Amino acid sequence: MKKVINRLLNVDKKTLLFLIIICIIGIITGSIFMTVLNNSDKSTIVESIDRFINEYGTINPKLDLINNIIVNLLYIVIIWILGISIIGIPIVIFLLFIKSFLISFTISSFIMKYKTKGIIYGIIYNLPHQVIYLISYMYLGVYSIILSKHIIDCIIHKKTIDFKKIINRYLLIFVLCIITVIITTLYETYVMPLILKKIINML
Hints:
Blueprint: H1 2-9, H2 13-33, H3 39-55, H4 61-83, H5 88-114, H6 116-126, H7 129-156, H8 163-202
């Protein structure tokens, strides 16, 4: 069991570092994107946040859970499928960039609307679940990119690779990410709203 865990955690460090840099770029871009929006777009975002806060807690938790699971699992499935295609690498990079961008943009939107309180709202709304999602996508993304590279090597350089071993590990990572996402989605649906609601009432 220990060997299996060590093998799973022993990811390609260069690929992981590259994806971390992509996510950092996404976070930075998301944080400054608000400054380049025109007043009309900013007003639309403020209205959306107002509507969200006013309607918060009125959504059916079961419906919210289903929607969240579908969205989050769709990310996992897409990244996994991209790993077995030769066009997967740029799309995986783009998906991770967008996810990190949205986390940062959401926090920036709360700050724009609620100033200091917005920092607290934004953090609670995104942490820790959105970060766990991002780490799961990044972890699967590393293996997805590596598998795509292996496929490209086989096609272009005619290399012989033990695909059975690689696919078995890839499937295991896929299952672990699904379990992580489902547990995290339960937190996002049932725990995070209670915490955010209490904080909103307090502030």
